[in-house]
Every structure is written in C-alpha cells, then in structure tokens.
Amino acid sequence: MKQILKRMMVAFLVVMMLIGVAGGATLQAATYRNGSRGKVVRNLQQNLAFLGFSAGTADGIYGKKTQNAVIRLQQALHLNPNGIVDEELNIIYFSFR
Predict the structure, then answer these.
(1) Longest Cα pair distance anywhere in the chain, in angstroms?
(2) What angle (nearest 5°) sits at the alpha carbon of residue 44, between those of residues 57 and 56?
(3) Distance from chain centroid for Cα 66
(4) DSSP H helical ranges for the chain
(5) pLDDT (0 to 100) of residue 97
(6) Contact (Cβ atoms closer than 8 angstroms) between residue 18 and residue 47
(7) Rounded to an integer, what distance in angstroms lies between the CA atom of residue 92 and that of residue 12?
(8) Whole-model pTM?
(9) Distances (CA, A) of 4 to 8, 9, 11, 16, 59
(10) For the stretch 1-35, what's the b/e string if a residue is b when 16 or more beta carbons lie within 10 angstroms of its beta carbon?
C-alpha cells in the first residue's frame, strides 16, 4: 500500500509539471500530440527536460523529439507508451484534485 501511494504521488507531481501548473500556467485537460503547438507544449518540453526526458529545444512545437520524450516518461511511469499527453495522464491529475 505504501509503495502504491508513493508511486501515485510521483505520478501526480510529474503530471502537474507536465501541464505547467507548477509554472503558474492554467490547467488545460486536453490531448497533446505530434503537431500540437503553443505555450502549453513549450511548458511540456521544459518540464520534460527538467525531469530528465529531453525533448530538444523548447520551441512550443510537439514534434518527434517531444513525442519520444513523452514515450520515455510513460515507460518510466509504466503507462501506455503512445507518445501522447492524453486522458491517461489527465486522469492521474484529476484524481488528486
């Protein structure tokens, strides 16, 4: 039980950083994938780099490098490694709200 709670807290913190809440950005429960663009994607790229999953330059464009970084993060969290910031990551966040 203790290990499960620890893993859930780590996942929660990761998702908070990914969606930019830690940086003061507004929470947006949306899907981000290859081709997505904008400030939220740039925050995602910066936070992935902070966590050790480099996505290259934080340019706000969700390209192949960002997709691969998300896949590596998902693998580390034992999530479906589809390269998409999707409902699976959002569910983790919203379950702690």
Answers:
(1) 40
(2) 20
(3) 10
(4) 2-18, 39-50, 64-76, 87-94
(5) 44
(6) yes
(7) 6
(8) 0.71
(9) 6, 9, 11, 18, 35
(10) eeeeeeeeeebeebbbbbbbbeeeeeeeeeebeee
For residues 45 and 20, is the Cβ–Cβ distance under 8 A?
Answer: no
CB 55 within 8 A of CB 69: yes
User: pLDDT band at 22, cuts 50/70/90?
Assistant: very low
Tokens 């580390």, residue located: 76
Q: Could you tell me the two tokens for 82?
A: 């589809």
Tokens 């490098």 belong to which residue?
Answer: 65
User: In 3D, which of 30, 16, 24 has the Cα closest to residue 62?
Assistant: 30
